[in-house]
Amino acid sequence: MEITMKIGTLLKVRVTTTEDMLGTASANPEIQREFIASKGPDAKSIEEEVEAVGADGVFEKQMTVFPRVDGKPIMWDYQWKGFFKDACSALRKISDTESSKIKAFKKEIDGNIFIVERAIPIQFEGEMGICQRPLRASTAQGERVALAASESIPAGAVMEFTVWCMSNSHLKAVKEWLSYGALRGIGQWRNASKGRFCYEILEETSLKEAA
């Protein structure tokens, strides 16, 4: 993303996972295509993201995986915006949090807070694994149990990206959401503590002062 307006502040963030992180993209290219289309991007974005999944029959269709660019696992910008919404939704119910001060928080995050990088590389040591777990659901036909599987990247993975807050009033909230990552992570199976992370601000740049 090109920074064309000298508005707000850029936060250069480094995230380090403290628990295994699980992939969220379907390895089935048709399912992935339908999901991305439901989010309403343009056709070029759909093809780009379907291609990045790299589903070539290596993975089972039910498995969730990490998208890849040049063979390396990544996270897309919108996944972090989704994390911000999830964190804000939970924290706004607690009085005296920065999140509780934001009305219509989804529109605020969609319209005024951006991740500058489109694709965010995931840097890690060791081998990627597979996490399998049972999924239980109550249906009209009774209890159903299925086996879910996801690609898993070990704890200690590092991601660096830039958050553009067009309003400086959102800076404290973004830091609050990132702090929440130590309790509720990103990726699949967050309720089981997967994807938890800590963060640090590497650089904070006022676009107005840099102009």
Structure characterization notes:
By secondary structure, the protein is of the alpha+beta class. It has 2 domains: about 10-25 and about 65-210, Alpha-Beta Plaits, CATH 3.30.70; about 25-60, no CATH class. About 25% of the residues lie in helices and about 35% in strands. A hairpin with a 2-residue loop joins strand 9 (about 130-140) and strand 10. Helix 3 packs antiparallel against helix 4 (about 105-110). It is globular and about 55 Å long.
Summarize the structure.
The chain has helices at 29-38, 43-53, 77-91, 105-112, 171-180, 207-210; strands at 9-17, 21-22, 25-26, 64-65, 68-69, 72-76, 113-115, 119-121, 129-139, 142-153, 158-165, 197-206.
Keywords, separated by commas or semicolons:
globular, 2 domains, 211 residues, four-stranded antiparallel β-sheet, three-stranded antiparallel β-sheet, alpha+beta, Alpha-Beta Plaits
SSE blueprint:
Layout: E1 9-17, E2 21-22, E3 25-26, H1 29-38, H2 43-53, E4 64-65, E5 68-69, E6 72-76, H3 77-91, H4 105-112, E7 113-115, E8 119-121, E9 129-139, E10 142-153, E11 158-165, H5 171-180, E12 197-206, H6 207-210
Antiparallel strand pairs: 1-11, 1-12, 2-10, 3-4, 5-6, 6-8, 7-11, 9-10
Helix pairs in contact: 1-2, 3-4, 3-5
